[in-house]
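User: Could you write out the 3D structure of this protein bound to alpha-L-arabinofuranose? I've included everything you need below.
Assistant: Certainly. Input first, then the structure.
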Amino acid sequence: MTTAKYLNKEIVILRKEIKYVNKTAKYTLHPELKIGEIDPRIYGSFVEHLGRCVYGGIYEPEHESADENGFRGDVLELIKELDVPIVRYPGGNFVSGFNWEDSVGPKENRPRRLELAWRTIETNQFGMNEFMVWCDKVKTLPMFAINLGTRGIDAARNILEYCNHPEGTYWSELRKSHGVKEPHKIKTWCLGNEMDGPWQLGHKTADEYGRIAQETAKVMRQVDKDLELVACGSSNSRMPTFPSWEATVLDHAYEEVDFISLHNYYGNPKNKTENYLAQSVDMDLFIKTVISTCDYIKAKKRSKKTLNLSFDEWNVWFHSGEADKKIAPWSIAPPQLEDIYTFEDALVVGLLLITLLKHSDRIKMACLAQLVNVIAPIMTKTGGGCWKQTIFYPYMHTSRFGRGTALNLNINSPVYHDDDFDAVPYVDGVATVDSENDSITIFAVNRNLEDEIILEGDARDYEDYSVLEHITFTSDDLKARNTLDNPDNVTPRANGNATLTDGRLSATLPKASWNVIRLEKA
Ligand code: AHR
């Protein structure tokens, strides 16, 4: 054996030993470790005219639970459990070929169209006005995307006049004639979708998109000055044009927009769980790079404005690829992108949520893509029941309990090494303090697949709090899934052992676990 090989072997053995030595992660819970105010909209989601997200998902007039609008009642109830504050619509890639006028007015007059992005037929039986009624039922806000692929400024100003202008003009009166008296007052608009992607209808170079985004934003603000506008960032961090795309687009449109978007999906196609669990480190780097790029353009322009980030597509997405290849083109609402999630996917989603929270000073909107059936926390059977996927739970916990202010925990955790990532902490976590409800929540994941880890914290500033519950989400089978027939195969339980005594907040984090430690003022 050569010396180098021998040394390498030694290092591997040493690393393995270290893995079993230190089973404690230390942290500090202190109000001065504030990251930022959490905009609840970081718990947003996404409904696209894709697969069975709309038809057979949120909308199925023939379903036994459907209301007078055709909205599935059983799905609505599950969405309410998630407490989703904003929903992006109608795409996605779909929006780059969308004629919004097709989706309003009497349903019998709405055209069927070839939907080129996903190679289906769009019936337009659910459209913009139906979406707004649905938002009302779900108690969520709309984030509307406009078509900057096959269309442009003219369609953008018209849709805005239709939606937001009170009355007395062609488009606002048309809306009224469609039975919608009051304007929708949609505030948040995405200026296209993934325009850097060659797959996108009407794909553009960064300069072409930067200019059209700038001019569209200008015109839209002339129609309605109270808008929030999101420019398209890169489709993912592996795009060859990332991050120069962001720099060029913002060079044109920095002053005209309020947000830059980020999209990224994660997966475990090589079935290497430790590597998979480390991918939130990649998300963190992606976010930091976009922030630096925004701030570089801010400096270059001597601007007073700080741009915020909208991570408006994120999730795990890799299970459904093979099944999708078998779907015949030009069918209506086929079962596309129907990933059935495993327990380990839920851990990754938890880690991604923790990462979003750790950037809550700059990420003010984010959308779990998507909401129902299509890479989604909620699944349905068309004409049948519905169930919660594994990823439903970390999303629900953070959305319901992760409000207020985010605090860094400065966790000092043992680490592991991986081909792609160096020194990945076994434990990652963040705290949120909700002063309105006098409650604190710690979200933490133990990435160690073999051993529990003791999380031991200095919480002397919160001695007047006590542990309300410690929820753990664990499974002996990392690949366990929930299905229609076995919907509660893997579910979280309030069985953790967190205690707060003499200013020390300690808890055992079971191996491979998602943890939610909830405190309330005693
Ligand atoms: O969410 C599925 C697709 O992923 C969206 O349509 C597109 O924007 C992204 O590439």
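The mean pLDDT is 95.
User: Perfect, thank you.
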